[in-house]
Amino acid sequence: MTCNVTCNDGDLQMNSRQHRFVPSFDAIDPALIPVRTLANGAKMPAIGLGTFGSDHVSHATVADAVLDAISLGYRHIDCAAVYGNEAEIGKRFETLFASGLKREELWITSKVWNDRHDDVIGSCQDSLDALHLEYLNLYLVHWPFPNHHPPGCDVSARNPNAVPYRHDDYMRTWRQMEQLVDQGLVRQIGTSNMTIPKMDLLLREARIRPVVNEMELHPHFQQPEFFAYLKAHGIEPIGFSPIGSPARPERDRTPEDTVPTQDPVICAIAVRRNVHPAVICLQWAIQRGQTPIPFSTKRGHYLANLRAAIAEPLSEEEMRAIAAIDRICRIIKGQVFLWKDNQSWEDLWDVTGVITPE
User: Fold this and answer.
1) pTM of structure
2) I need a labelling partner for 110 at 20 to 30 A (CA). Which of 92, 103, 215, 226 fits?
3) Which domains, ranges and CATH numbers included, belong to the chain?
4) Which pLDDT band, with edges at 50, 70 and 90, does 298 fall under?
């Protein structure tokens, strides 16, 4: 008997008798999506689907979005252990591979969470098991601090064991990351939420250099100095919150936050092109040279996001106009990773050009 598995109103169909992956009727050819060539020659799709939504949608909902997004042409999926949904996503990967989709067609990222900096290999193996994979394309150190916090805490929460950045500790973590490559468990390694001073130290001592740094990037937080630094060192920037993270948790909201999708410059370009302002944010990101990883579980949104990668390019004038609206507005400030009371979130980000001491 033929059995069809459907997702999101029948957008993805897989025939279990024929073991055939059938793209959605409105899919975008993955071959049309731009790629980033990493320092070691690996090819990474220049747009991905983020999977952090556990604070407001179920794990199954995120996993179903991953399944359907792949049917639409996404080939880059950004995961992390702390999101809590890797096991559900892994079930969808298993379904896809059983249907005939080849593992090598996907770029899959995961990350070691702060509480396992001393057990990177074990953490990676747990993610591989959850995701039903034999290897990851990319594995990141999620934050450069070992500090962690209970789910749902507010920004005033402080882990009693929290500490500032200590380079020797970070290098012990990085040596384990290098071992993952040696063992074939991951193909590439990278960093996330780093700064120039921290990256300087890592590049000085790393045996295997990071190929990417994942960081907050959107039109109101363009990080031009760090962006140029990464490009100069052969490190590709992956941009999270590329449209300003409108669904971020309440704890990550502050009165001074701005909204890039409401910026008059972004909105004017969107009106001219008859698209949502979020699409303009993503087009800008891809043309600028970063790899955005927007999150959505709404089909119309993540399909529009993917189409941004193949849309008519923004003009030089439009790109210059967007470059001029940087508000230096960091949205994901990371307050829960601070290590003492009455401390500014800026201490996490080395804004003076020097790593904040104890």
Assistant:
1) 0.93
2) 226
3) 10-148+161-244+257-328 (3.20.20.100)
4) very high
